[in-house]
Amino acid sequence: MNGVAPSARVDSIRRSLVNLKMPRALEILDATLRRIEQGQIDGIEALDELLGEELSLRENRRIKAALRMARLPVVKTLAGYDFSFQPSLDRNRILALAGLDFIERAEVVHLLGPPGTGKSHIATALAVEAVRAGKAVYFIPLADLIAQLTKAEREGTLREKIRFLARASLLVVDEIGYLPVTPGGANLFFQLVNARYEKGAMILTSNRGFAEWGDVFGDPVVATALLDRLLHHAVVIQIEGSSYRMREHAALVPENVRNGAAFNPPPKRRGRPPTKGKSDHEYG
After folding, report:
1. Where is the AAA+ ATPase domain (predicted)?
2. pLDDT digits 0-9 by tens, 146-159
3. 76-84 contact pairs (CB < 8 A, 24+)
4. 85: three-class secondary structure by DSSP
5. Eight-state DSSP code of residue 261
């Protein structure tokens, strides 16, 4: 092997990289070899660079595929959230959620507040953090979720659909209260919540306080059963303030709308105490 010409050895490396499906390492091979020849790096550093670049490419591909599977409408980050526009929001509490401990504890994070205050942005950003951490994530507005469950029930595949939705480490249900729930939808949503109870984490966003959920779901009894499970191991984040989207046209919007007067904050939580020292205030 010592008599093999350097060019033949390089060709052999190229073939190996192709067979190992390492396109990024193959792409930078020549440049890396030149740096070795020029004395900029040694062989160990070159090997580390080739493998690091390849791993980075594969990780980016994994994240891209996982984000697509998560069905996120857009990719947003906490770095892109303007905390200064919503002074009522505890920034440290949100950043603590980004540590994703709530997923390990199978807790439910409620993001409540008027439209435009950043609930969906924060939910999406936390979902992105979970994807990057290798968690299985599924994001869906409540109206679309109930439509999917209704279709599955009609086709006789409800059990399979709920099993699929229960597999995700994090289920994000967006826009609770924005559209009326179709008849029977509350019961279908309850079946899914019940399947995930104490098994999988959720993030829920809503422009309606908990006291209004009977109206939202059209069934006070089912709404009570939902809240019984969704508030047992819960983190409740209430965002008060004006719409970020309407900030440039605030003068044209009635004051009661700007101030989110239509939003009724949730009452203080009642019911079963959290177990194992858990509380609604673990993050702040």
Report:
1. 105-240
2. 999 999 999 999 99
3. 76/121, 76/124, 76/125, 76/128, 77/125, 77/128, 78/122, 78/125, 78/126, 78/129, 80/121, 80/125, 81/118, 81/121, 81/122, 81/125, 82/118, 82/244
4. helix
5. T
The rounded mean pLDDT for the chain is: 87
Question: How far apart are the C-alpha atoms of 178 and 215, rounded to whole Å?
Answer: 12
Other beta carbons less than 10 A from residue 86's beta carbon: 19
Residue 191 contacts residue 223 (beta carbons within 8 Å):
no
d(C-alpha 184, C-alpha 219), whole Å = 9
Contact, 188 vs 95, CB < 8 A? no
Note the pTM of the prediction, 2 decimals: 0.79
Q: Which of 86-90, 263-267, 271-275 has the lowest mean pLDDT?
A: 271-275
Q: CA triplet 174, 281, 138: central angle to 5 degrees?
A: 25
CATH architecture of 78-238: 3-Layer(aba) Sandwich (3.40)
The band of 247, judged by pLDDT with boundaries at 50, 70 and 90, is: low
Q: What is the pLDDT of residues 73-94, one digit of tens each?
A: 899 999 999 998 888 899 999 9
b/e code 136-149 from CB counts within 10 Å (16+ = b)? ebbbbbbbebbebb
Paired with 176 in beta bridges are: 206
